[in-house]
Design a protein that fits this description.
The structure holds 2 protein chains of 2 kinds. Chain A is α/β, with parallel strands linked by helices. Helix content of chain A is about 30%, strand content about 30%. Chain B has one domain. Helices cover about 75% and strands about 0% of the residues of chain B. Classes of the chains: A alpha/beta, B mainly alpha. At the A-B interface, helix 2, strand 6 and helix 3 of A face helix 1 and helix 8 of B.
C-alpha cells in the first residue's frame, strides 16, 4: 500500500487550473522528487496534501487516510518544511520548538538537531538570518522523526554544507522507513537523493520516472573527428541528431541505443572519438520545455 | 486549547496592558477631577448649554443637568461615551485582525496548520483569547473605580459599574466577533479593518442620524451604538433586554459564521 496516494487531483482558482487531474503514488520508504517550473502546481499540490487548501476534485490519501478528513490525526505523522518558512518574530527558536512539543506529544530529537545544525535556540526570530530561520524549519520538520516528510524546496537559503546535512537526514529517515515527498528546483539534489521523480508542468503530470530509468534513457553527446570525407545526411537517422559541423568533425546527440551510430562511424577512418553522457539536468529541462 | 490561549495572551500582553493602563489613566483622571467639577457644576453647565443641541446629542450628552450630580453620570458622559468605546474598538479590532488574517498575511499560519490542531480549535483559541483580552481591559478600565473612588473619597454605586461592565463586555464581544468574522474570511489585515471599520462607521452615523431626525429614528436599530446605553447602565444599573439579545445573538452569529468559513476556506500564504 503506497504511503501517499494522489488520485485525479484538481485544484482550480477561478478559471486558473493550478493542478489539473494529476495522479501518483509514493511508496513507503521512498524519496520522491517533485519537479516543475515556477507556477507548475507543485506548492498547490503540497498544500492540498497538507489540507491548507481543499481540492476542487480528486483526493489525497496519506497512510491510507483521507488527507482532508483525517488532517489533524495525520499531522502527528507528518513533518513539513516550506522553503520560505515563516515564524513568529517575537518568539525564540526554543519557544517554537517547545510549542511543537506541546502539540505533538512524541519523543523528539530537537536537541540533537540543534547541535548538529549549530542552531542558537535562544535568539528571537527577528534577529535570525534567513539561513538560520531555515535551520529552525528543518529542526521542526525532522524533530519527531515523522513517518511522512513533505518538503517544499527544503534547501532554500541553506549553504552547501548544511544542504549536505539535510540530504543526510532525509536519507537516514528514508532508510528508517519514512516516506519523503520533496519539491525542488535543485536538479542536482534531486538526482543525488531521490529514488523517483514526478515532473509537473502547467498543472499536469508530464512524467513519473525512476532516477535510474532516466539515467538509462539519457542522451549521449558524441564528438567524432574524421580522416576521410563524410556527409551530414548519412548521420541523420532515428535517435541521432547532428548538433554541429566543425569541418573535419561532427558533434552529435544520441538518444537511446548508440550502436547504430557506432556502426555508421566505423565505416569511416576515425581520427578521434569522444562520448559523454548529457547531464540529467538536460533531461529535466527537456521535460520542462516540452 | 488553554495553553494556546495563554500563549496568545502572552504574545499580546504589551498591547493589552498598554490599552488597559491608558484607559485606567483616563478613569483615574476623571475620578480625581470629579470633586472639583461637581463644585463648579453650575458654571460648567451654563457653558455647555451654549453648544449646539445636535452636537451634544451626537456625543451622547443628553442629560446635562444631572451630569455633575454623581460620578456615574459624569463618567457616562465624559469617559464611557466617546474615548472608552474608541479604545475598545481599536483594541478588539487590532486583536481580531492580527489573529487570523494577520497570521495568513505574515505566513505564520502555516506553522500552526502543519501541527495537529483542528482549524476550529485554532479559531476558538484566538476567539477566546480575544474575549479574555477584552475582559482584562474591562476590569482595568471599569472595575478599578472601586479603589479609585476610595482614594478620592467619591461616592459610587459599584453595582451600576458592574452592570455597565457587563454591557461593555457584550458590546466589545459584538465588535470583536464582527472583526473576527472578516479576519476569518480575508487574507489581509487591511481588508479586515476596512470592512469592519466601514460597518462600524455606518452604524455610528445611523445612530447620530436617528437622534437628529425623527423620520430616521428607525436607523438606530441597525446600530450597535444604540444598544450600548451607557447612561442607563451606569446611572440606573439596567440593561435593556433587547440590548442583551442583540449583543449576544450578533456575537454568536458572527462567531459561528467566522468559524464555519475559517474551517471551509483555502489558506494559502
Amino acid at each position: 500500500m503506497p504511503a501517499i496516494q494522489v488520485k485525479n487531483l484538481k485544484k482550480y482558482f477561478g478559471k486558473t487550473r493550478a493542478v489539473d487531474d494529476i495522479s501518483f503514488d509514493v511508496e513507503a520508504g521512498e524519496i520522491f522528487g517533485f519537479l516543475g517550473p515556477n507556477g507548475a502546481g507543485k506548492t498547490t499540490t503540497i498544500r492540498c496534501m497538507l489540507d491548507f487548501i481543499r481540492p476542487t476534485e480528486g483526493k489525497v490519501e496519506i497512510l491510507n487516510k483521507n488527507a482532508q478528513c483525517a488532517s489533524v490525526e495525520l499531522k502527528n505523522e507528518i513533518g513539513y518544511l516550506s522553503g520560505n518558512a515563516r515564524f513568529y518574530d517575537k518568539w525564540t527558536g526554543a519557544e517554537h520548538i517547545d510549542f511543537a512539543k506541546a502539540l505533538v506529544k512524541k519523543p523528539d530529537i530537537s536537541q540533537d538537531l540543534c547541535e548538529r545544525f549549530d542552531f542558537n535556540v535562544d535568539s528571537k526570530i527577528k534577529n535570525l538570518s534567513s539561513g538560520n530561520r531555515q535551520k529552525l524549519g528543518v529542526i521542526l520538520a525532522f524533530m519527531f522523526q515523522p513517518k511522512i516528510l513533505i518538503l517544499d524546496e527544503p534547501t532554500n537559503a541553506l549553504d552547501p554544507i548544511l544542504q549536505n546535512e539535510v540530504y543526510g537526514l532525509i536519507q537516514h529517515l528514508a532508510k528508517a522507513g519514512s516516506t519523503v515527498f520533496m519539491s525542488s528546483h535543485n536538479l542536482a539534489e534531486v538526482e543525488r537523493i531521490c529514488h523517483r521523480i514526478g515532473i509537473i508542468r502547467k498543472g499536469k503530470m508530464a512524467a513519473i520516472e525512476s532516477i535510474q530509468t532516466l539515467k538509462d534513457k539519457r542522451m549521449q553527446l558524441v564528438q567524432v573527428a574524421f580522416n576521410d570525407k563524410f556527409s551530414i545526411p548519412e548521420f541523420n537517422f532515428d535517435g541521432v541528431q547532428v548538433v554541429k559541423n566543425l569541418g573535419d568533425r561532427l558533434v552529435l546527440n544520441v538518444k537511446g541505443d548508440i550502436n547504430p551510430l557506432i556502426k555508421k562511424i566505423s565505416q569511416h577512418s576515425i581520427k578521434d572519438l569522444h562520448i559523454e553522457h548529457v547531464p540529467l539536468e538536460e533531461i529535466f529541462l527537456e521535460f520542462y520545455e516540452k | 486549547m488553554f495553553s494556546l490561549i495563554l500563549k496568545i495572551l502572552k504574545d499580546k500582553r504589551i498591547s493589552i496592558l498598554g490599552f488597559s493602563f491608558a484607559s485606567l489613566g483616563f478613569l483615574w483622571m476623571y475620578v480625581s477631577l470629579f470633586p472639583s467639577f461637581s463644585k463648579t457644576g453650575e458654571q460648567m453647565l451654563d457653558y455647555m448649554k451654549s453648544f449646539p443641541e445636535g452636537l451634544m446629542k451626537a456625543f451622547g450628552m443628553t442629560d446635562l443637568a444631572s451630569m455633575f450630580l454623581n460620578i456615574e453620570n459624569f463618567l457616562a458622559t465624559e469617559q464611557f461615551s466617546i474615548i472608552w468605546p474608541l479604545m475598545l474598538i481599536f483594541l478588539v479590532s487590532a486583536f481580531a485582525g492580527a489573529s487570523l488574517s494577520g497570521e495568513i498575511e505574515k505566513g505564520t499560519i502555516e506553522y500552526l496548520l502543519a501541527k495537529p490542531i483542528s482549524r476550529l480549535k485554532l479559531f476558538f483559541s484566538r476567539y477566546f483569547a480575544g474575549a479574555a483580552a477584552l475582559m482584562i481591559f474591562c476590569i482595568f478600565s471599569i472595575l478599578t473605580i472601586a479603589p479609585l473612588s476610595k482614594i478620592y473619597n467619591v461616592a459610587t454605586v459599584f453595582k451600576n459599574h458592574l452592570i455597565f461592565g457587563i454591557l461593555a463586555l457584550l458590546f466589545g464581544m459584538c465588535i470583536f466577533s464582527l472583526t473576527a468574522f472578516f479576519s476569518a474570511i480575508f487574507s489581509e489585515r487591511s481588508k479586515t479593518y476596512m470592512f469592519s471599520g466601514g460597518i462600524l462607521i455606518c452604524m455610528y452615523v445611523f445612530n447620530i442620524l436617528a437622534s437628529l431626525k425623527d423620520n430616521l429614528d428607525f436607523l438606530k436599530y441597525f446600530s450597535f451604538f444604540h444598544y450600548y446605553n451607557v447612561n442607563q447602565a451606569l446611572t440606573q444599573g439596567r440593561i435593556e433586554t433587547l440590548s442583551w439579545l442583540v449583543f449576544l445573538l450578533s456575537s454568536a452569529l458572527c462567531a459561528i459564521l467566522a468559524a464555519y468559513f475559517f474551517k471551509k476556506r483555502d489558506i494559502a500564504t
